[in-house]
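Throughout this chapter, every protein is written as a compact record of paired, labelled lines. An example of such a record is reproduced below:
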Amino acid sequence: MNKWFDVLDTFDDEERYYNGRYMIQDKVYGQDLESSELEMSIFEPVDEEAEGLYEIYFSLRNAIPTFYGVSYAKKDEVMARHEAMKKELEEVVDTMVLDENGKFELKDGFINDFCDRYDVDIPILGGFDVVKMAEALSEIFKK
């Protein structure tokens, strides 16, 4: 049976800071800690860069296609959104069937529906700031 494991303590204080926010919750969901299939985190805003918005991060491990992203919410909305997302993602994990490679396919339309429902941003390029990278490339090509 799957359950939640709190892994916040695996990060030191400095590692909890990310992109103008500070991680206040990090949990994984699965049969045991090592084989968890879902991770969810909450980051609270700590500087102007975060624009007062909390960030909910999630990652479904071993999903085909890979599915992870973030959703932003105001302080009075963050826990309700987190709980709704959590419930839906738990259901995915609880009903998944792994293939011979240890992967599982998401139902058709799930990603689009989930992203629309929770206004999810899917980071591109593994956490790079695409805008800053584009600006830097623009400067290089001007020379």
Q: What stands out?
A: Residues 71 and 119 are 6 Å apart (CA to CA). The chain has one domain: 3-142.
